[in-house]
Design brief:
By secondary structure, the protein is of the alpha+beta class. The protein is built from four helices and eleven strands; from the N terminus they run E-E-H-E-E-H-E-E-E-E-E-H-E-E-H. A hairpin with a 4-residue loop joins strand 6 and strand 7. The protein is globular.
Length: 223
């Protein structure tokens, strides 16, 4: 966990692959508890520390996670996320190059709860939700492609599912068609940048996550 921004109302950290944002059935310590402990120790806070989970990243994903430190910030951030006022940019590494160097993808996603997996359809089907993202190819190595993605909707496993649907599964993402896993169990998806208006001060906030430490991500840092 790396703290990239903090004030009295919110804190933004860079999540490592493998960390869970909020407690689940695994019983593993979630990132939210690590952040609470960080705040408690740094500010010598007695008693329980308030921390609101605003959004989540999938466990194998790297990158930016926002938490609220006050109930006022939590309420406003929840509304901002719901209204699309928080702009998130992701980077993804794929082995296959998309047919177009940039495009708007529109699918209709259905979710299978038992499999914890989403499925993409070209047309609206029963219980589907419209999913849209924009991507552009921003760098290449001999074997891999780096895509920058801007989410226009926020659906379950949206980036993973939509890229798989165009034949470009994310590196390491076995669930969505990658041929092999990454050695560290991650998938090569990074919540790279987040931009929004501060929920209390109304000043512009823009935070960028560092690239993960593995060699392939670092190879793209020089592109």
């Amino acid at each position: 966990m790396q703290v990239l921004y903090e004030d009295n109302h919110l804190i933004i950290v860079s999540k490592r692959s493998g960390e869970i944002v909020q407690g689940d059935k695994t019983g593993d310590e979630p990132l939210s508890e690590m952040v609470k402990q960080y705040i408690k120790e740094k500010y010598h806070k007695p008693g329980e520390v308030f921390l609101g989970v605003v959004h989540r990243l999938d466990r194998p994903v790297w990158g930016l996670t926002v938490f609220a430190r006050t109930s006022k910030a939590l309420e406003r951030l929840n509304r901002m996320f719901a209204n699309g006022e928080v702009h998130k940019t992701y980077w993804a590494i794929t082995a296959n190059r998309p047919a177009e160097t940039e495009a708007l993808l529109t699918h209709y996603l259905t979710r299978n709860e038992k499999q914890n997996k989403s499925y993409a359809h070209q047309h609206e089907v029963k219980n589907s939700k419209k999913a849209q993202l924009r991507y552009r190819l921003i760098a290449q190595t001999e074997r891999y492609n780096l895509l920058e993605i801007k989410l226009l909707t926020g659906r379950h496993h949206q980036i993973r599912c939509q890229l798989s649907a165009i034949g470009c599964p994310i590196r390491g993402d076995l669930k969505y068609g990658a041929p092999r896993s990454n050695p560290d169990g991650s998938i090569s998806l990074l919540a790279r940048r987040i931009e929004f208006e501060h929920p209390v001060s109304h000043l512009p906030i823009c935070v960028e996550a560092p690239l993960p430490p593995d060699n392939l991500w670092q190879a793209f840092s020089t592109k």
